[in-house]
Amino acid sequence: MQFIVRVGVDLAKHVIQVHAVDAAGRRIVARSIKRDQFLAWCAQLPAGCVVAMEACSSAHHWGRRLRSMGLDARLIAASFVTPYRMEGSSGKNDMTDAAAICEAASRPRMRFVPIKTCEQQGIMALHRVREGIKEERTACINRIRGELAEFGLVFGKSPKALRAALADVLEDASNELSGTARLVLQRAFDHWRALDEQLRWCDQQIGLHVRSSPEARRAAKLTGIGEIGASALTASVGDFKQFKAGHQFGAWLGLVPRQNSSGGKTSLGRITKRGDDYLRTLLIQGAKAAVMSAPKRDDPTSRWLVQLTARVGWQKACVA
């Protein structure tokens, strides 16, 4: 164990595969370890040993635990690990994955994922729950619309229009709604209101996070970034100094164009859409508000947005 300098770890729920090498890259250990025995095995590693894992579920938890033990825990995006699997796509298993992670961690220019704190993960859990509640609320509204349409009752597309009319519809005895249908729709309406209440609670918690975080407060002042965007960005990214420039941050989020360039000829396509879909969605939604209101402002960015919109169109200007 004292000769191990680097360990690749393939995480799973119950069994963890490790692949350890020495300074020359020779394999020393390749075995599977039960989850409850993993930390005891890692305690035998020399101090400062590199322990690399894919940035997947529970990876940040293990990273914090290993760093507290004096080990150099590192997380690698899964897309960066795949090219180092010697067996290719046809030879994927826990052993080859652990070996690929170990090999990828040895590359001097490899980019690692910063390990999140417990506070960061707590805020991100809040955002994920909020998104789940939004999806559930949309599904509930669509169910109500579908059932009303079965009785010939159709309303405007906005949830506000449906909410305003639903109470009167349930009380109107002249429509075709049966007694059972009225009871069912009343329960669905109550569920809708309960989801709205849960969503308001999530928004309140996000607001508290923004007001308690100096970084989030500064981000919320930027055009097109409100409380939700500021909270999600500061919780997900953490230290923005890891990016050398804004363009590098855009590439990390997948907002730069795909390239298929060769022979000195540049060929650009759509954006790569790498990185966090949720953050990218929030930024583009905020950018739409900034582009729509740009003619009302006279700062350099707004003037540039007006010119860009006229040249390339509204959607491309938003992404830009």
Write a concise synopsis of the structure shown:
This protein has helices at residues 38-42, 59-68, 78-81, 94-105, 118-150, 159-171, 179-212, 214-220, 227-237, 246-253, 277-293, 300-312, 314-319; strands at 6-10, 15-21, 27-34, 50-54, 72-76, 257-259, 268-271. It has 320 residues and is α/β, with parallel strands linked by helices. The chain has 3 domains: 6-105, 2-Layer Sandwich (Nucleotidyltransferase, domain 5), CATH 3.30.420.140; 118-220, no CATH class; 284-320, no CATH class.
Account of the protein in words:
The protein is of the alpha/beta class. It has three domains: 6-105, YqgF/RNase H-like domain (Nucleotidyltransferase, domain 5); 118-220, no CATH class; 284-320, no CATH class. 54% of the residues lie in helices and 12% in strands. It has 13 helices and seven strands. The chain has helices at residues 38-42, 59-68, 78-81, 94-105, 118-150, 159-171, 179-212, 214-220, 227-237, 246-253, 277-293, 300-312, 314-319, and strands at 6-10, 15-21, 27-34, 50-54, 72-76, 257-259, 268-271. The chain is globular. The two termini are 51 Å apart.
